[in-house]
Amino acid sequence: MKEILVKEVYELHGAASLAIMEDSPLEVVITKFAEDPRLRAIFLVGIDGRFLGEVIQIDLMKWLQLRLYGASGVLRRYEGSAVGRGIAIGEISRLVSATKAREVAHRNCRYLGVTENDTLQNALDKMIKYRTGILPVLDSQGRILGDLRLSEVLLKSVDIGR
């Protein structure tokens, strides 16, 4: 099978993300997700415009759960359950005290980016490893060009099958 590159796929649907400064207030992140149900990720950038992180919906779900039910409620609810692995103990203190976008960002997300010349295989490996359905597409300087969504990869696979 021919190697497919990210640049052949990532613009099929247009963007499902936006970029904000990493030190933006958490309220900005919450408002952006609440106002646009099509939004899949908020990419965090530094002053130089380079990608530094990503906030996805599951990050906000964890934050919200802690906000509504507190750490003891979340831990008690998940005791002994496979679902309990959703919020690690170390994550709880970080999320409970979060006030900035970077403090709720998906962990290890600095490694999420792909370039236009990366293969879809590499992109899918990252999606699986970091449990996300959206990746930033970066230029050689680490600036965001767009996003690659799982839905775009799925559409490409249907096209290949034809």
Jot down its keywords:
globular, 3-stranded mixed β-sheet, single chain, alpha/beta, 6 strands, 18% strand, CBS-domain
Walkthrough of the structure:
The chain is an alpha/beta fold and 162 residues long. The protein has one domain (6-161): CBS-domain, CATH 3.10.580.10. The chain is 39% helix and 18% strand. The chain contains five helices and six strands; from the N terminus they run E-H-E-E-H-H-E-H-E-E-H. The protein has helices at residues 26-35, 57-78, 89-96, 120-130, 150-161; strands at 17-21, 41-45, 51-56, 114-115, 134-138, 144-149. The strands form two sheets. A three-stranded mixed beta sheet has the order 1-2-3. Helix 2 (57-78) packs across helix 3 (89-96). It is globular. The two termini are 14 Å apart. Mean pLDDT is 84; it is low at 80-84.
In the CATH hierarchy, what is the class? Alpha Beta
Number of domains: 1
| Terminus-to-terminus distance | 14 Å
Strand content: 15-25%
Kindly report the oligomeric state of this protein: single chain
Rough outline: globular
Q: What is the count of DSSP helices, taking H or I runs of 4+ residues?
A: 5
The CATH superfamily bears the name CBS-domain
N-to-C series of helices and strands? EHEEHHEHEEH
Rg over C-alpha atoms, rounded to the nearest angstrom: 17 Å
**Strand pairing plus helix content: what structural class?**
alpha/beta
CATH architecture descriptor name: Roll
The count of strands amounts to 6
Report the CATH topology name: CBS-domain
Low-confidence stretches: 80-84
The biggest sheet amounts to: 3 strands, mixed
